Amino acid sequence: MSDTKGKLRKYKIVFLGDQSVGKTSLITRFMYDTFDEQYAATIGIDFLLKTVYLEDNQTIRLQLWDTAGQERFRLLIPSYIRDSHVAVVCYDISNKRSFANLDKWISDVRLERGDEVLVVVVGTKSDLSNKRQVTSEEAEALCSRVGGAFFVETSTKANHNIKQLFKRIAQNLSGSSDENGVDNQAQDTAGTETIDISINTESVAPLRCC
Amino acid sequence: MNVKSNGGLLHGTPSITIAGGVANSDSTTPDKSEASLYPTPSFTHPDLSLSSQLCVNHQRNNSAYSANVSLIDIYGADSIIELSPKKAQETETPMNANILDSLDTEEGDTTDELSVQNKVSKSFSTNRTISTSSIIPPGSVKSSDYESEMKRMLLPYPMSISKVQDILNSEFDMYGFKKETSLHVISRQRYDSWFKDYSEYLNNRQKKWELLMRANGLSVRTGQIPTRFPPKSDKVKKMIRRGIPPEWRGNAWFFYAGGYEKLNKHTGIYAQIIEDTRGLNNKDTEVIERDLNRTFPDNILFNEMVVTKLSKTSSTSFTNVENESETPMIQSLRRVLVAFSYYQPQIGYCQSLNFLAGMLLLFMDEERAFWMLVILTERIIPNVHSKDLEGVHTDQGVLMLTVKEYIPSLWSILGRTYDGEILEKDKILTRLPPVTLVTSSWFMSLFVGILPIETTLRVWDILWYEGSKTVFRVSLTVCKMCLEDPDFQRTGSSSTMGVETEQIELFQFLQNYPKCLLDPNEVVDKCFKKIGGYGFGSISQDEINHCRDFVSKQRAKMKDRKLSALNAELTDEERSILLANSNFDNEIHDVYGFHRSIMSGVVWNRNISSKMKKKFSRKHSTD
């Protein structure tokens, strides 16, 4: 998408999806590699920034926009997703309703951004497999129906597929992705933690007082 | 008998009570038995009428803005108490702003109010009691760590400042929150070193409050929490700004916010709603259910796991969290939120109400917390939680206009569009600056989760006493403190990344900045002090009301124009989303002028001389 080398490329990624599917948890795992059973509900929006180093020595800056999931906050969508490059739409694999609502979230995104945005479908809480209500096949089908870039199941608790998710996003953004090489990651990559996205300590929120 | 005294229910003994229970041990209440936790319908006291007359600045309903609030709710009770302005003028009060406000309040609603009251009390006079056992299963709390932590907090009451050493030794503050906040924004060491000093401050304030009470003929017995407080005055206002003693907070908030008036007019209704909503299952209750455990996961009263987790190793067990027993506080929170969504269907449940209700429940019983939520959403921040979040847009418009007026140097940074284009003064409302995405949540959750706990509580002390202008004053204070922070200026100047990213960096800074404001006195002093502070105390409720009125009228106008221009082929849903977008790109609106000169308003003239006198005499005092 962007081509100038040397200059830091910036991308805006918006996280959407029903309340309590685990958007904040997903972002927190990626940002700080920590996990809590409960996070306080997100009100309005949370901005997070992270610099990511890709394998080919490229550096990109990600703006992560964490949003509130309750329906009435959808009214704010246009202002959230203005100028966004990626919309990560999340559902909880143990909650069919959250999956059913994906269509709404995606149509909000398309209404505002058309095809200028990369849509990524993410199933969360894959560790709750005994309570699964949505199969990965269903989600895969939805993803291709809505023209999503890719679909992946994740678990922040088991730290499953989180880095892979962001790596694939980065690859899609930088246009250097080898689609086939990462195609099977949705199924089973819990063991393979060799990921080239390195954590940049500088990106921890700029709080001056600790 | 009750639905509300959490503490008593917790251990099944009436001797251990949380704030709400203690709150009712007022020596002036005729019936002191545990059973009469509610003030009786006939409950009145001498100061009540006085205080309500002085509350008029919260209760104006003659502006177009507040007229949006539904005055008749499903129970047929009127939402806004209108008071006779004559009486208010007769009462001698130094609160000049209140007098000015009361001048344009209209007379004559008192009789209506009475008739409604009678109607209500007739229809809801029965069925007030709900058996405890049916609500909270006994023995639901087991963990021994939890028990011991609770004991520390509950004896003699949860937030005793007398046990400073206990608090210093604990992982938790006096309200049950973990001292160390998530992501270590505030470390335990930092908290403790601050609290050592602050606890002394609290003790001094407690003594001053006791003196104030005695001077007003109100008795204060050791270990007892007053239910009556001095009438509003300049002196009391100053005392409130310096903080209400933690144990007294719930009662003082309730008293000054007009809680008694509300409660007495609606006796038994809360219990009735609890009956009516038992087993209720709808969209709101589903959303509420999902937010209960996500309200204060780091507070021991809301999440006992927060203690057991401390003694656990880092490897998280994969037990099913949903099967963990609920704390009584979670159950109270559920009832209050469900009751509220049922009582205020035009709001229903809105995320962030959970934080407001949760905070109230730390300081008062369920019924009172419920009515305080009602007061808040009707009078103080109306429409902010409504389905279209219209109040959020209105108040953000007002905030942006005040930023432009009072902190122009910040406006020159933030008063831009996403693309960095400078917003002309006739486009501010049509294209609200993106920074409002950060500040919206300040209004929705009234700084809960935004500022550290004690700072939030100090803001709430002022808010319940002085009204919605407090939210604006404090927001401006936080913005200006942030602006003056060297790191903010550094973030802004490292502009190698282009305008948009630079803005996002600033937003993130502004978003995280308030979490560090651990010392409430710093914030309050900055806000109100004219020398060494920003003097935002000069922004009157009148000004805020005018400005809200202006913004909501402009928004309505723009909406009309937009609606007529909208393509008829769109579905309702698409239309609502388009409408919700504040980017009415090429639209312009009228320009708002602030009335900063005291000579500008007509209503001001009647009191201008006394106001001037006060203004000049105050110049010589320190505050």
From TrEMBL, chain A:
| Presence of keyword Nucleotide-binding | yes
SMART domains assigned to the protein according to its UniProt record, in alphabetical order: RAB, RAN, RAS, RHO
Please state the gene responsible for encoding this protein. Answer: RYH1
Any idea where this protein resides?
Endomembrane system
Alphabetical UniProt keywords: GTP-binding, Nucleotide-binding
Q: Which InterPro entries match?
A: P-loop_NTPase, Rab, Small_GTP-bd, Small_GTPase
The UniProt entry lists the main location of this chain as membrane
Q: Which domain of life is it from?
A: Eukaryota
Q: Which GO terms describe its molecular function?
A: GTP binding; GTPase activity
Specify the protein name. GTPase Ryh1
Q: How does it sit in the membrane?
A: Lipid-anchor
Q: Which GO terms describe its cellular component?
A: endomembrane system
From TrEMBL, chain B:
Q: Which Pfam families does the UniProt record give?
A: RabGAP-TBC (PF00566)
Please name the InterPro entries in this protein's record.
Answer: Rab-GAP-TBC_dom, Rab-GAP_TBC_sf, Rab_GAP_TBC_domain
Note the PROSITE patterns from the entry: TBC_RABGAP
- Gene Ontology terms: cellular component: site of polarized growth
Residue ranges annotated for the Rab-GAP TBC domain, each copy included: 243-467
Where do the record's region annotations for Disordered lie? 14-40
Question: So which domain of life are we looking at?
Answer: Eukaryota
Protein name from the UniProt record: Rab-GAP TBC domain-containing protein
> Which species expresses this protein natively?
Scheffersomyces spartinae
